[in-house]
């Protein structure tokens, strides 16, 4: 009955949950997208820790294994189920006889024990009746006469000790009975809370399925938003990456060209300035040298004065005449050509705006992200449409698999079952009180018997006097003997009733233990139910035929139970892919193929020209402008000289000193005038030109440094420009393709991750059926086996043990009473 109840419960739960359509989807993981399916904690524990009574239960189980050592009879049960328990209709057939013999052979140990119990129950009251009649006829120890024996003292002590040991052993059995009875009652009360928690868990299981499915579907929206965000940001994610691939190469050469353009500007400015300074210096020098020549001529003319012929003056005049060569020109700027040709060529170079051309190169690199965004506008619209189509396909799963509608059937079953259970609770409590009282009365009678025996021994031992003869024994001793005989009488009266109770509970408890509890725990019970064509002769596998309507699919109760025990989803546990294949609806490869097809349509036209041919020619023209071929040595040599051969102030001072030594006259006046004129030339003409001359010299040095190796530098820049342009031209398509693949892989990875997570959640996590396995465990393993069978087995074991010991206790008590009761006659006793 219990086996059938357990099977029907599992079938009912499965059948009420499934029809011809099936389940729904869920998901997996990614670096940036993390989904956490809402899960629910359940109240009912699937493991109960062992308590202090397990050792007693194991002791009883060992006894049952000794009585019933046979293995679980799978074949016999299969045959019985196939015959639908209708053996009475064909009992005469050989196979029925063989099957009956197999059943008897398996149950032989239990049957023998039950037979012995029945014989005990039948013979004990008969023996009591005969014993009573016999004693009434003063036989069977009913004669109140005690014969003298030599070992009387020993026998009295032997019988007393034996009865004491038997009473102690019976007390242990009675304690087992009290313990089992209390355990039974205590844990039966726990059954109500166990049922409540199971029903709550089942409702939680049903309630969480819809939110889980909604969560899975909602995560597609999250994934789609993330993909749309990346598509909107394509100029950074795709264009920016393409730009980063080209930027290091392009900026290096563009910066070099930019520096060269700056040098062209600086060279032009410098040449113009140098040309102007050189022209000013030439004009200034010409005026200085003209004035110096005039001073020199004037002095020479003055030295022709007759006074110079005087012997005292001629030496001084000659001395002055010899220094006049120092007034000649020191710098010949006419040897230095003007820079007009170079300036003209530079001006030709400057006619091309190299900086503007260079900006176009920078712009072609910097505008890559914007150009990518503009050129992928249509593709992004198509990708959005494709992603929306995928979303519609996923959303339809819920519509095609109405989970909540199918689970509502289970709701009704749970509600009905719960109402039935709670409506039966008062009756169960009433019957439980009857059971508790019956077991208590049985234990009470055993305790009463043991008390009579203990009182009899106590009074007999206390009231016994060694000098008293059998007819002179005291009242206390006689009372002890009466107590023993009362215990014997009560034993005869209740022992057969107790044995009937023990036999009945033994047969039920032992068979439930061997045929339900143990095979349920080691899965042998499920293996029987999973036997092909057993329950339905037209279905190979009953569960697959019931749920999937495909009886040839291997779907076993054992596997379903294991999967539910491991908290697998209903989809996996019941192999619902045979009804509705979620993997096909969430076909990752198919969706990825559609997305890849859209991404392959991305065609980017990113023609990048770092510098036009005009700009390249401009660089070459600058290298050919001739600024590098200027004879800087001549310019530097001339500009490094002083404006005059001698410092005019010093020369004028020396001339004044010589003049002061001359006698007054026209010669002296003329020389003094020219000395002052030299000072004026130095101050007004020479000093202003000296900074310009130094500046011109420094500018020639600077220009020489700038133009040193100019052609080589320009050639390197042009070569670098050509190689970089060639690199960009040759590699840009592959860079675009590679970065497009990376970008598409990022977008696809979102959906690949989501679809994998969704499929895994649908098949493994949504509607995880552990509450069903826990409910079945609660019915069979906890309620039937632990709460009922084990305490019931301990109960019959304890009461049976005490009841069996009543037989030797009766014999010993009757014999012992002879030594305590007062006799009517006696033999002659001698010391």
Automatic annotation (TrEMBL):
Please state where this protein is localized.
Answer: Cell projection, Microvillus membrane
The UniProt keywords, alphabetically, are: Glycoprotein, Membrane, Signal, Transmembrane, Transmembrane helix
Q: Give TM regions.
A: 108-137, 158-179, 434-461, 482-508, 794-814
What organism does the record attribute this protein to?
Pipistrellus nathusii
Keyword Membrane on entry: yes
Designated name of the protein? Prominin-1
Q: Which domain of life, per UniProt?
A: Eukaryota
Similarity remark:
Belongs to the prominin family.
């Amino acid at each position: 009955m219990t086996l059938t109840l357990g099977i029907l419960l599992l079938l009912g739960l499965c059948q009420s949950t499934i029809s011809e359509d099936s389940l729904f989807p869920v998901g997996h993981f990614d670096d940036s997208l993390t989904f956490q399916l809402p899960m629910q904690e359940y109240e009912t524990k699937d493991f109960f820790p062992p308590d202090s009574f397990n050792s007693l239960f194991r002791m009883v189980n060992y006894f049952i294994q000794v009585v019933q050592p046979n293995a679980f009879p799978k074949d016999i049960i299969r045959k019985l189920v196939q015959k639908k328990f209708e053996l009475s209709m064909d009992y005469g057939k050989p196979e029925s006889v063989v099957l009956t013999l197999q059943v008897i052979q398996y149950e032989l140990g239990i049957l023998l024990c039950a037979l012995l119990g029945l014989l005990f129950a039948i013979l004990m009251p008969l023996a009591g009746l005969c014993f009573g009649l016999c004693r009434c006829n003063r036989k069977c120890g009913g004669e109140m006469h005690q014969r003298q024996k030599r070992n009387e003292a020993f026998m009295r002590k032997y019988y007393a000790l034996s009865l004491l040991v038997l009473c102690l052993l019976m007390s242990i059995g009675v304690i087992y009975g009290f313990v089992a009875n209390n355990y039974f009652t205590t844990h039966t009360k726990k059954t109500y809370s166990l049922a409540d928690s199971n029903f709550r868990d089942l409702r939680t299981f049903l309630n969480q399925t819809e939110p889980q499915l909604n969560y899975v579907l909602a995560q597609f929206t999250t994934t789609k938003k993330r993909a749309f965000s990346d598509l909107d940001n394509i100029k950074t994610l795709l264009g920016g990456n393409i730009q980063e691939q080209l930027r290091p190469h392009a900026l290096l050469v563009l910066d070099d060209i930019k520096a060269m353009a700056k040098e062209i500007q600086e060279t032009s400015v410098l040449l113009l300035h140098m040309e102007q300074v050189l022209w000013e210096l030439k004009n200034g020098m010409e005026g200085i040298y003209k004035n110096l020549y005039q001073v020199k001529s004037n002095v020479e003319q003055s030295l022709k004065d007759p006074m110079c012929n005087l012997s005292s003056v001629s030496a001084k005049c000659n001395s002055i005449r010899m220094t006049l060569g120092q007034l000649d020109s020191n710098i010949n700027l006419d040897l230095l050509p003007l820079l007009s040709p170079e300036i003209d060529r530079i001006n030709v170079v400057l006619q091309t705006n190299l900086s503007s051309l260079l900006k176009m190169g920078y712009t072609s690199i910097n505008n890559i992200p914007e150009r990518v965004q503009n050129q992928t506008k249509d593709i992004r619209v198509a990708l959005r449409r494709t992603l929306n189509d995928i979303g519609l396909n996923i959303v339809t799963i819920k519509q095609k698999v109405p989970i909540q509608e199918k689970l509502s059937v289970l709701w009704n079953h749970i509600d009905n079952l719960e109402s039935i259970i709670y409506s039966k609770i008062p009756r169960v409590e009433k019957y439980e009180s009857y059971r508790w009282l019956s077991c208590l009365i049985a234990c009470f009678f055993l305790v009463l018997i043991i008390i009579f025996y203990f009182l009899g021994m106590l009074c007999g031992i206390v009231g016994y006097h060694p000098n008293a003869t059998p007819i002179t024994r005291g009242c206390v001793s006689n009372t002890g003997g009466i107590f023993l005989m009362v215990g014997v009488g009560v034993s005869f009266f209740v022992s057969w009733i107790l044995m009937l109770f023990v036999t009945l509970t033994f047969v039920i408890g032992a068979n439930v233990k061997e045929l339900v509890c143990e095979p349920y725990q080691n899965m042998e019970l499920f293996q029987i139910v999973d036997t092909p064509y057993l329950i339905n002769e037209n279905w190979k596998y009953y569960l697959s035929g019931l749920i999937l309507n495909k009886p040839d699919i291997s779907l076993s109760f054992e596997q379903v139970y294991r999967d539910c025990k491991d908290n697998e989803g209903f989809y996996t546990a019941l192999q619902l892919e045979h009804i509705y294949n979620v993997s096909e609806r969430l076909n990752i490869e198919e969706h990825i193929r559609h997305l890849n097809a859209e991404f392959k349509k991305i065609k980017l036209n990113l023609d990048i020209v770092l510098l036009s041919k005009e700009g390249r020619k401009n660089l070459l023209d600058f290298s050919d402008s001739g600024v590098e071929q200027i004879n800087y040595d001549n310019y530097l040599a001339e500009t490094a000289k002083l404006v005059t051969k001698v410092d005019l102030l010093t020369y004028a001072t020396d001339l004044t000193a010589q003049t002061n030594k001359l006698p007054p006259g026209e010669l002296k006046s003329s020389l003094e005038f020219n000395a002052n004129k030299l000072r004026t030339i130095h101050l007004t003409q020479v000093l202003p030109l000296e900074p310009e001359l130094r500046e011109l010299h420094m500018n020639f040095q600077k220009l020489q440094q700038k133009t040193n190796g100019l052609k080589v530098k320009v050639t390197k820049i042009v070569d670098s420009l050509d190689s970089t342009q060639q690199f960009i031209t040759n590699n840009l398509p592959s860079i675009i393709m590679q970065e497009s693949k990376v970008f598409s892989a990022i977008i696809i990875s979102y959906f690949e991750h989501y679809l994998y997570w969704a499929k895994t959640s649908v098949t493994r996590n949504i509607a995880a059926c552990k509450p069903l396995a826990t409910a079945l465990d609660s019915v069979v393993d906890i309620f039937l086996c632990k709460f009922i069978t084990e305490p019931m087995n301990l109960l019959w074991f304890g009461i049976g043990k005490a009841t069996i010991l009543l037989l030797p206790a009766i014999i010993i008590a009757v014999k012992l009473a002879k030594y305590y009761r007062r006799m009517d006659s006696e033999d002659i006793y001698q010391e």
